[in-house]
Amino acid sequence: MEVKMFNQPLRKSYRSLLYIILTVLLLLFPSISFADADRIFKENSKAVVIVIAYDEKGNRISQGSGFIVREDGAIVTNYHVISNARNIKIKVGDKTVDVEGLIHIDKENDLVILKIKGENLPTVRLGDIEKASVGEKVYVISSPQGFENTISEGILSGIWEIVGTNKKILQITAPVSRAGQWQFKRGVIDKWIGEEALKRVTQNKRTYSKKQMKTIYSMEKI
Length: 222
Known about the structure:
This protein is α+β, with helices and mostly antiparallel strands. The chain has a single domain, classed as Thrombin, subunit H (Beta Barrel). Helices cover 20% and strands 34% of the residues. The strands form three sheets. It has an eight-stranded antiparallel beta sheet with strand order 5-4-1-2-3-7-6-13. A three-stranded antiparallel beta sheet has the order 8-9-10. A two-stranded antiparallel sheet has the order 11-12. Strand 1 and strand 2 form a beta hairpin. It is globular and about 45 Å long. The relative contact order is 0.21.
C-alpha cells in the first residue's frame, strides 16, 4: 500500500546534513564514559537501521539512517529522508520490513517517528544530555549509502544555551560520512530531541495507519 508524503523542500539545505548526525547521535552520549568504541558498538549497532524511501513506481529515491527507540518498533529518522516517498521500508539486520504507520512528524526539526511491526526489538541505549560535558567522548554509528553500521569517534566540543528557549546546541567533532564522498565534522543537536520527541515515543502508544497517514501528511504538525 502506498504512503503519501509531503513534497516540500527544507528551508535550508544544510539542515539535512545537521540532522543526518542527529538521527545517529542520541545513542552516543556515553553516560558510561569509560566504555570504549567496541562496547558502544556492540550495545547499540543492532538498533541502528536503514530507512529506504520509494517513489510511486517502486524506484528507490533516498535512504538514511534511523534507530529503534522502543521494543515494539518505534523508529526515529529524518523527515527529509522520507519526505517525497510513496512507500517506505526499513532494513533491520538482514530483514527488510514495511512501515506500518506513523507516530509523530515534525518538519521544523526534520524528524519523523515511524512504526514497524515488532516485539522485543533491540533499542539504542540513550544517554542523558543534562549530564553531558565538554570533552566527553562521543561515538557516531550510521549506515552511509548502505554501508551498514560504520562507527566514528570524536568529542563533545561545545555546549550552548539558546537564548529565550529551553534548548541547547551541542557541537561534536566525530566525523559522519555522507554519500561516501566526504565527512561532515561539525554538527548540532538540540535538547528538544532528548526530551519532547522521546516523551512522545515512550508515552504515546497511538500509531497512525497508512490510510490515516494520507490525511496526516497534509497537516503542518501532529
